[in-house]
Amino acid sequence: MLMGIALMTALSACAAMQQPRQKASEANPVVETATPPNAGVILYSVSPRIEKHPPAGSLPRILLSLGGARSREGEGRMFRAYVEITHDYKGPQHFAFATFGGADRIGTRYLAHDSHCDPSGACQYQETVSVPLPEAEVRSAAQDHRALRFRIHGSEAYVSVAIPASYTSALLAKMDAAPGS
């Protein structure tokens, strides 16, 4: 539990301080580490953030940060995606779970939401969720040199997310090379 709380706090802060956004296909991912005092974990954050949006400024827009954590002894590992979704669906979606292929639902953590409406009543919503990523899915995508794909489901809609293989490979390489791995 402590590792989960430390990961949530540190990666939220790291995501805000990362390099400018780039298209993931143009990016060379860099994995940064942090070791909070007395936390017993090593935190990993991959930058730059991934930005996905349809052409011509339409919605939804997705801004994603990938991170992980492991105990200093190398025993426990966690992987998470922090996903900011800007959309114009019918109201907030409260994105509650994610699916990977045909796998079971994995609950998300709803972190923030905001809305902006113009005088005509047209609204844009911004919702941020944390998605736990199963280690087996992360490893499989990296080993197969394919994007890690999943859907985040809301009350009336879903968004599709793809994390490039270069991101998952870089994160795993850094975590696996650390002492105690």
Task: Walk me through what this model shows.
A six-stranded antiparallel β-sheet has the order 1-2-3-4-8-7. 21% of the residues lie in helices and 41% in strands. With 181 residues, it is of the alpha+beta class. The protein has one domain (2-177). It has helices spanning 2-17, 135-143, 165-177; strands at residues 30-34, 41-52, 61-71, 77-87, 97-99, 106-107, 109-117, 123-132, 148-153, 158-163. The protein is elongated. The chain contains three helices and ten strands, in the order H-E-E-E-E-E-E-E-E-H-E-E-H. Helix 2 (135-143) crosses helix 3.
Overall body shape: elongated
Helix segment count?
3
- Number of domains in the coordinates? 1
Residue share in β-strands: 35-45%
Average pLDDT metric: 85
Side by side, the strands of the main sheet go: 1-2-3-4-8-7
Indicate the structural class.
alpha+beta
Q: How far apart lie the N and C ends? A: 20 Å
Order of helices and strands: HEEEEEEEEHEEH
- Which spans have pLDDT < 50 for at least 5 consecutive residues? 5-22
Number of strands: 10
Q: Helix fraction?
A: 10-25%
- Rg, rounded, reads 16 Å
Major beta sheet summary: 6 strands, antiparallel
Task: For this entry, give a set of tags.
181 residues; alpha+beta; 41% strand
Explain briefly what this protein structure is.
This protein is of the alpha+beta class and 181 residues long. The chain contains 3 helices and 10 strands, in the order αββββββββαββα.
